[in-house]
Amino acid sequence: MLDSKMKNTLLALAGTAVLMAGSPVLAQDAVPATPAAATAPAADAAAATPAPAADAAPAADAPVTVADTVGHGGGGITPISMFMDAGMVVKVVMIGLILASVFSWTLLLIKMFEFGALGRTTDRFLEAFRGARTIADMRRVATSDDFDGNPLADMAAAATEEVELSRQAGLSVTGDHRDSALLRAQTAVAAVQAGLAGRLSGGQQFLASTGSTAPFVGLFGTVYGIMNSFIGIAESNTTNLAVVAPGIAEALLATGIGLFAAIPAVIFYNYFNTRIASYGTRSDGFNAELINGISRQLDKGA
Questions:
Q1: Predicted local distance difference test score (pLDDT) of residue 44
Q2: Are residues 39 and 136 in the same domain?
Q3: Is the pLDDT of residue 201 over 80?
Q4: Does pTM surpass 0.85?
Q5: Which residue in 83, 151, 184, 237 has a CA-CA distance of 20 to 30 Å to 255?
Q6: DSSP state letters, the chain
Q7: Which domain holds residue 42?
């Protein structure tokens, strides 16, 4: 009986020991499950949140655009904006070349009208002069107000006036003294004809100067502008083309304006030289016609 009680007691103690030993093991297996479930949403939230560093990096590497360097609200580079942004020296060069170009075109219009009117007046004068029958008629036509300022009319007026002055001085203009009278008339015509080139070549010197110097003046502005651009490159420590291109474009604009002023000036100069030479040839022909007409009238005793 006693053995049976002791055996039951020992079994009870052994079962209690087993239960006490098994409780922590079960606790360890149950507790970690809750934190694992709680951390899962946090991991998902972290993955869903965007990394600010990744988005900020491209902004720092954004390239510099031409619109950022112009300063005209992103309007792009235009000739006006290049002129406004150019340095003072380059601006002065551009303004001078533009004024030279304007004066060249103004001279073109003035001289075109001048030569057109001169040609029409000369045609009318020659028609009237060839209808004269005496030296007095020649002088009357040459001194008419309708032909005032015409070079050929001035030549005829000088020659006939010289003959008339010789007569008024009591000199014989016929017979043996005919050649002396003709020589004096030719000298008077030559004096008028000598100033003909000067009268017709007004403005030619300006066209010649513009055509020969405008490209070099524009080149000076370009060299000065590019020099400033390279100085700006050195100071900004950048070789980005979008940064330095506007300054170089402004400098090259000066050369473009110089060529724009020079090319028309050279064309106009050569054109008007041709017109002047053509009229000079016409005056030489009239000189011979005039002297022949006076000589014929002197032989007739008129």
A1: 44
A2: no
A3: yes
A4: no
A5: 237
A6: -HHHHHHHHHHHHHHHHHHHHHHHHHHHHHTTHHHHHHHHHHHHHHHHSPPHHHHHHHHHTPPPPHHHHH-STT----HHHHHHHS-HHHHHHHHHHHHHHHHHHHHHHHHHHHHHHHHHHHHHHHHHHTT--SHHHHHHHHT-GGGTT-HHHHHHHHHHHHHHHHHHTT---SGGGHHHHHHHHHHHHHHHHHTHHHHHTTTHHHHHHHHHHHHHHHHHHHHHHHHHHHHHHHHHT---HHHHHHHHHHHHHHHHHHHHHHHHHHHHHHHHHHHHHHHHHHHHHHHHHHHHHHHHHHHHT-
A7: 2-52
